[in-house]
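Section: Multi-chain targets

For targets with more than one molecule, the full set of components is provided together so that the structure can be written out for the assembly as a whole rather than chain by chain. Components appear in the order listed by the source. The example entry contains two components.
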Amino acid sequence: MATGLTRFGRRMRWVPSVCNGRQFSTSFCDKDHNPPAKSFNLYTAINQALHIALETDSRAYVFGEDVGFGGVFRCTTGLADRFGKTRVFNTPLCEQGIVGFAIGLAAMGNRAIAEIQFADYIFPAFDQLVNEAAKFRYRSGNQFNCGGLTVRAPYGAVGHGALYHSQSPEAFFCHVPGLKVVIPRSPREAKGLLLSSIRDPNPVVFFEPKWLYRLSVEEVPEHDYMLPLSEAQVIREGSDITLVGWGAQLSIIEQACIDAEKEGISCELIDLKTLIPWDKETVEASVRKTGRLLISHEAPVTGGFGAEIAASIVERCFLRLEAPVARVCGLDTPFPLVFEPLYMPTKNKVLDSIKSTVNY
Amino acid sequence: MALSHLSSSSRSSTLLKPLTTSYLLRRPISTDSTPLTIETSVPFTSHQCEAPSRAVETSSKELLSFFRDMALMRRMEIAADSLYKAKLVRGFCHLYDGQEAVCIGMEAAITKKDAIITAYRDHCTFLGRGGTLLQVFSELMGRKDGCSKGKGGSMHFYKKDANFYGGHGIVGAQVPLGCGLAFAQKYSKDEAVTFALYGDGAANQGQLFEALNISALWDLPAILVCENNHYGMGTAEWRAAKSPSYYKRGDYVPGLKVDGMDALAVKQACKFAKEHALKNGPIILEMDTYRYHGHSMSDPGSTYRTRDEITGVRQERDPIERIRKLILSHDLATEKELKDIEKEMRKQVDDAIAQAKESPMPDPSELFSNVYVKGYGVEVIILSSYQLISILFFHDICYH
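Its structure, encoded as tokens over all components, is:
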């Protein structure tokens, strides 16, 4: 349990692309005209998305622990003042209750946007998500659904979070047909993907990279826009190896790409964005081009979503692959206290793996 | 912490061994163990049971120990605050200052055979069970000499030889575990009980009611202690609970509301609860207490409550001040002697911090140990070049 993570530890210098406010090389879908955009950090972008969601749909609600006060990461600041306490409210500390309640609310045709304070605390609600939310439509023969449900939860490492404020539980939810799992990498992405998730007619679990809440800053259009779900994005083109990641890990991978480039290795970087149902085609097309694949995520390597990507791509591109699919992930240990730097799939680990895969 | 000697000389002698001798120094002022009877600050309020007497038996020795132990805890928590702000504490940090009387009073009524399980605000509970300051500060800083070898951090203190089952990170999750402990105690006819501590925030978790039903159904010697500090993080109790009378929320399970700022009342209630639990099964104790610090270190603790409220509690209800007044009014020690004790505690804390800072970081191989029992599960071994690199990298960080 903790309130806002204001201290981001020593690893800050390892993510210069976000620290410096530099952006990923390609940008969002709405490029035809130049809408007004200002620099915002990730939690402000989330906050904007929630404002828009409540503004544009009078049947949208935001709730969770301490949400009425702005939430521990300030994502819900100002919402209760603007939309009133009947639409933005605190819940007791009971995750199973929060999600069950949200499913019921959504089943009546509302948009229920529930916050779980940390992804580490989502497990009391696991049963509700897996057994109630995911299968509601299927088991009722499409009479009922909870498509208006979106569960937001901050996930991932922050440099000092230790065992219960650092975990990345996305793979558990990727094993559940009926749920969607979405993870943004930056403020602009977060706003567009969150609005899509809220408006998607399926229950979505939306994990927010808490390390980037304040660190990641980029231009975010102020208007209402959505980014498509289940569409991966090639954010860096290259020819020697395909790198796939999501969320906060992308900035780490991008750093490794830049270093690899100095050594003459051309990397193609893909942001998966939606983990299920995921965009196999984009990844496949890229691997067909490069012949090599590396996946990197913070969650432990065994049973991580990287395994699923690896298996699918081997199925589709077996004859085209020139090296085994590499996974640079968290170690198979609980998230450690002092050994976070060892546990994490750091830039150097990614770089090392890029080189060994290319030189296989 | 020399707590165990308070309850009975025959008990738990092993627990005193690891303690540094300075804790046990008997000052001339504190040797008197002639009984004293003191009335609790407010009457107990009971639910489905008859409340114990307000007259609590104590002694000059016990009161002075209460004072010394609470002063030590208070000082320790304030020091932990500074260490955190100096960025020496890893993980999260939740402080107990203000709530000391709950821990002290509970320890005075029970033995180390009884089990305690709590949530993440666990530093003082650990100290109360006989943990040392060195273990506390080393664990906070993730060092080898920590009580969990530097692998747990602030939220995960444990002490097996004193039946302290920790130190749990997920709100409310420790309470059903406590029922399991109580079942084992009952089954093996230990004549011991389990105190499962949780906060007013956790009191709204569903698993708490599952635990209550199970322990009542099987008459388990489980004592559910709700440390009601009135705020679940930033949420006042009445915002989160339809009925903030947590001692009544067991419905069919008896309950007692206790002034958790009065160590003697806590002692009386815990003694009563233990007898009740051994005979009749579970009981809820609601300790009306207060935390001076925010919920955790990143919560200033002042946005959802007024400064006046905090100052008011400090002036009117502070657990240490209450004992200080009792000692002075019964002429058991002078004001200067009490100040000297506080100074001594301060020194012990400073010395322990200095020592803890010298304690080495755990060996990097500890990252992979204790995930499974050796030979009984999947071994995590250093296989690939990435992991090797990460260790080299780690050394880079350490020695820079």
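Chain A touches chain B through 48 residues (CB under 8 Å).
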